[in-house]
């Protein structure tokens, strides 16, 4: 078994056994669903809004070459230094080089899943820089030396008591269960970091090709401080984040807030178009934008699944996924969790190493229904499963698949198995869960359905014998 899959099973077993953790997550997500549905109901038609968003993203992704060129040209015209990184290593090396050339020692960073994807913090710390997370949730998990738990809510797995104990240990604060006091404790530390930082790093929720700007949406205002006070601003953006026109934000900003956090609109929405211009009194002296490919163009070449690049990272699919609600975000072992992570991670990090994520799904379709841009997530999970097994089965999988094919091509054998099942099923009921039970691996976590008293073929023969008008 591949190490990633083994670690996923280990973590999933640990979290599913932690009933307190599961109750915490499920309670939080129930509250989210109430607010999400409240704001969805304010749309004249949520379904038509989803369709419009899907079509806009389709246009952007299927004409990405043209929109990227327009986007880059307009950014560079205002003095922005744009670097297109083919790999995560190239992105890290460029940002480290910017820091070293400008003798940067302290960095303030706002929430960015793309930065998590390329493991930027580790690279900068290795180069001698100190990196401070400014988003409250990210700051909390940074103090705990953890990865974010969720795309939108990095510390949703922690209670107020957990955070209070963490601040008491790491910051020397007094115990408190007040959210306001906990926020002020973190803010008192962060304010100093904003002022002393030499460089600010941000992600980007959207890039606007028409105007050559990036859009950042947040609830705390930390990104505004982190990108305005330091002399240098470095933004990292996946190439798939483009929107064609500025007016598209009128749809995407409220949809992101509604689907992602159950809000009408996020508190702070800011557009950045370049470094400080002549006559402006604030803003960074340097603005660098790193456009990250990192296998996205390979994904783009897959006509069957390229609509996964429409994702706006709202986290709605995580919030409704029964697997995520039980195994938790850290079990996935990757930057992007839940259904969207299970679809895109095999493309970004290797199908064979990460195929287990696509099998960790109930295929209930809740993710597809929740996605605000209409990505066909549960079908993409099936397509990943198919692609993972085509010609690449392990030595022990090959005889299993061959046996299945042999079995299904012989109807008489299939019918015989049904008859044998009726004979041996009472034995299973007798030894259920013991070492003598051949189905114990299945019934360890689920119930095995009772055998039907009559097969469909038997029923159909009987019905035909009685005639078309016989009662059922």
Verbal overview:
By secondary structure, this protein is α/β, with parallel strands linked by helices. Among the domains are: 43-294, Rossmann fold; 397-466, no CATH class. Helices cover 54% and strands 10% of the residues. It has helices at 3-17, 19-40, 46-62, 64-77, 88-101, 113-117, 120-126, 136-143, 160-171, 179-196, 222-228, 249-261, 296-300, 316-320, 322-327, 338-349, 351-354, 356-359, 366-370, 377-389, 397-408, 411-431, 440-443, 456-466, and strands spanning 81-85, 106-109, 130-133, 199-202, 206-208, 213-218, 232-238, 242-243, 268-272, 286-292. The strands form 2 sheets. Strands 1-10-7-4-2-3 form a 6-stranded parallel β-sheet, with helices on both faces. α2 (19-40) packs antiparallel against α12 (249-261). The longest helix has 22 residues, at 19-40. The radius of gyration is 26 Å and the shape is globular. The chain starts with a helix and ends in a 6-residue tail after the last helix.
Topology:
Blueprint lengths: L2 H15 L1 H22 L5 H17 L1 H14 L3 E5 L2 H14 L4 E4 L3 H5 L2 H7 L3 E4 L2 H8 L16 H12 L7 H18 L2 E4 L3 E3 L4 E6 L3 H7 L3 E7 L3 E2 L5 H13 L6 E5 L13 E7 L3 H5 L15 H5 L1 H6 L10 H12 L1 H4 L1 H4 L6 H5 L6 H13 L7 H12 L2 H21 L8 H4 L12 H11 L6
Helix pairs in contact: 2-12, 9-10, 16-20
List descriptors.
472 residues, alpha/beta, Rossmann fold, six-stranded parallel beta sheet, four-stranded mixed beta sheet, 24 helices, 10 strands, 10% strand
């Amino acid at each position: 078994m591949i190490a990633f899959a083994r670690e996923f099973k280990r973590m999933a077993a640990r979290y599913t056994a932690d009933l307190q953790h599961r109750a915490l997550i499920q309670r939080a997500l129930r509250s989210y669903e109430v607010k999400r549905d409240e704001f969805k109901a304010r749309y004249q038609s949520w379904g038509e809004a989803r369709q419009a968003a899907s079509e806009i993203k389709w246009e952007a992704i299927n004409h990405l070459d043209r929109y990227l060129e327009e986007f880059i040209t307009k950014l560079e015209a205002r003095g922005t230094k744009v670097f297109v990184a083919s790999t995560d290593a190239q992105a890290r090396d460029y940002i480290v080089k910017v820091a070293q050339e400008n003798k940067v020692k302290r960095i303030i960073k706002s929430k960015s899943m793309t930065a998590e994807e390329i493991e930027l913090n580790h690279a900068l710390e290795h180069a001698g820089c100190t990196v401070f997370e400014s988003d409250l949730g990210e700051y909390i998990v940074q103090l705990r030396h953890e990865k974010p738990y969720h795309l939108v809510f990095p510390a949703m797995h922690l209670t107020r008591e957990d955070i209070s104990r963490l601040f008491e240990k790491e910051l020397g604060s007094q115990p408190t269960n007040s959210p306001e006091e906990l926020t002020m404790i973190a803010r008192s530390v962060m304010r100093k970091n904003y002022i002393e930082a030499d460089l600010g790093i941000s992600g980007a929720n959207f890039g606007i090709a028409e105007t050559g700007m990036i859009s950042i949406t947040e609830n705390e205002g930390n990104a505004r401080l982190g990108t305005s006070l330091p002399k240098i601003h470095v933004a990292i953006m996946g190439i798939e984040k483009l929107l064609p026109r500025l007016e598209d934000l009128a749809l995407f900003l409220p949809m992101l807030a509604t689907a992602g956090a159950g809000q009408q609109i996020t508190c702070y929405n800011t557009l950045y178009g370049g470094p400080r211009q002549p006559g402006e009194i604030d803003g960074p002296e340097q603005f660098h934008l790193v456009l990250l490919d990192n296998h996205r163009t390979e994904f783009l070449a897959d006509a069957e699944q390229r609509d996964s690049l429409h994702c706006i990272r709202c986290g709605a699919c995580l919030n409704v996924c029964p697997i995520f609600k039980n195994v938790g975000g850290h079990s996935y072992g990757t930057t992007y969790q839940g259904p969207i992570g299970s679809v895109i991670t095999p493309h970004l990090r290797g199908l064979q190493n990460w195929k287990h994520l696509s099998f960790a799904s109930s295929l209930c379709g809740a993710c597809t229904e929740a996605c605000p841009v209409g990505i066909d997530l549960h079908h993409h999970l099936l397509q990943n499963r198919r692609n993972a097994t085509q010609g690449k089965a392990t030595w022990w999988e090959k005889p299993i698949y061959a046996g299945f094919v042999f079995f299904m091509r012989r109807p008489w054998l299939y019918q015989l198995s049904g008859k044998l099942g009726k004979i041996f099923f009472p034995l299973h009921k007798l030894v259920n869960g013991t070492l003598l039970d051949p189905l114990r691996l299945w019934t360890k976590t689920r119930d095995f359905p009772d055998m039907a008293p009559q097969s469909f073929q038997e029923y159909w023969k009987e019905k035909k014998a009685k005639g078309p008008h016989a009662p059922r």
